[in-house]
Structure to design on (163 residues):
């Protein structure tokens, strides 16, 4: 993957409805060459899907929470993944290192619905406890930056704050 592929990915993440001609113009390629690059990115699995970013509050899913799940056994199997995927309120599920075994992101319409999801989580085989952090406000959510800045590069871009 070269810098043109990375720039195409960033452009598509910003607006996946752009034409190949517009994308090509932005990166200095013809629309045909751009189409071929995007096709190859899809074929290699770099682009997993094209989706729409929906405002959760606008569709009645304004309560967001992160739930740390403790377990009595390793929870990395297909059975656990299937049990979590069966709960449509779970947006993300991650095996983590640290105090918990799993971390899931949940969206519901109300605190009562969040409580019901927590009850469902306790029905997943192996789950022994949960600890929930409710989101009060989200400053931002950002897509992955395919251009891959290193955290070491931040010192060069740190904004200067005037006293």
């Amino acid at each position: 993957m070269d810098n043109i592929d990375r720039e195409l990915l960033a452009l598509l993440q910003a607006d996946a409805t752009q034409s190949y001609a517009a994308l090509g113009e932005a990166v200095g390629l013809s629309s045909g060459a751009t189409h071929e690059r995007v096709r190859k990115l899809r074929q290699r699995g770099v682009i997993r899907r094209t989706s729409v970013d929906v405002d959760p509050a606008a569709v009645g899913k304004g309560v967001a929470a992160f739930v740390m799940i403790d377990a009595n056994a390793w929870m990395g199997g297909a059975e656990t993944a299937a049990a979590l995927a069966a709960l449509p309120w779970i947006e993300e599920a991650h095996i983590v290192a640290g105090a918990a075994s799993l971390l899931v992101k949940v969206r519901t319409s109300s605190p009562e619905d969040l409580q019901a999801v927590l009850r469902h989580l306790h029905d997943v085989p192996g789950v022994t406890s949960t600890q929930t952090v409710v989101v009060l406000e989200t400053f931002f959510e950002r897509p992955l930056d395919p251009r891959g800045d290193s955290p070491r590069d931040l010192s060069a871009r740190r904004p200067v704050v005037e006293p």
